[in-house]
Design a protein that fits this description.
The structure is a homodimer of 160-residue chains. The first copy, chain A, is of the alpha+beta class. Chain A has one domain: Roll (Thiol Ester Dehydrase, Chain A), CATH 3.10.129.
């Protein structure tokens, strides 16, 4: 990962994509969000969604997993180049999380994140804070998920 | 569930509580948030958290599960009293989600939700929108999680 000082506002990262299968939609929802339209095809058909669709929390946590994997690849690449690797995370929170469209069975969601703000922490001047705007877009080009998250990022060590 | 017209702003619901065990913390994180401090005790000890702690997404989705269960109990109770049951959900989104404190192994989080706003949808006057402020509080009385969510609630059918 880059140090806080290397972050460029406006930079965009392709986080990864994921196809939501019926089995995993139902397994996630059975554990964490057992509303009828997330766990049962026939109940979903008679709901306003019209078909089985993923819990909104599910489409959000898949972003988290893909982001952790993407960061891991970036860190490995930096290490391979002999570059220092800055510490990152955890997140402080999320704002403006919107579930804009349902994620139906076999939909493929392509996630991306764009840096929208970088600032030094007021309470901890030794750390930077980065806010990113993340989206998930389905195979029809529709945005299904949008949110902003803020994460700690290590500042570059001062060279005396 | 109550119809939109029966919602009282300021009303508080005890959603339920959950004790986070090491095995489930690691299983959730291995699938959705495999950062070292969520999946590995020794890596967590050398992190700034000092010990294994749950993914913030995990503490949020446990609220969702307990809320679905709580709604189900309220619906069953209404049916048992012979009262009509209004349709509810899904959620439109989340705002101001804050992970304020870590959730460590064996912490018990008590979740509650308070109605903070009720308004008729501008785009769909037939439905109401309810915003609730939800919190998770640990056994030391510390708030670990806080967020606001907005959900569709059915309006009372007009009697001619």
């Amino acid at each position: 990962m880059k140090y806080f000082e290397d972050i460029v506002v406006g930079e965009r990262v392709a986080v990864g994509s994921h196809t939501f299968k019926a089995d995993e939609i139902k397994a996630f929802a059975a554990r964490f969000d057992p509303q009828p339209f997330h766990v049962d095809e026939s109940a979903a058909e008679s709901s306003h969604f019209g078909a089985l669709c993923a819990s909104g929390w599910h489409s959000a946590v898949v972003w988290m997993r893909l982001m952790v994997d993407a960061r891991h690849r970036m860190m490995e690449a930096a290490r391979a180049r002999g570059e220092p690797v800055a510490a990152m995370g955890p997140a402080l929170g999320i704002r403006e999380l919107k579930w804009l469209k349902p994620v139906y069975v076999d939909d493929t969601i392509d996630y991306a994140s764009e840096v929208i703000e970088a600032r030094v922490s007021e309470s901890r001047p030794g750390v930077g804070l980065m806010s990113i705007h993340s989206t998930g877009i389905n195979q029809h080009g529709e945005t299904v998920l949008s949110f902003i998250s803020t994460t700690f990022v290590e500042r570059r060590p001062v060279t005396p």
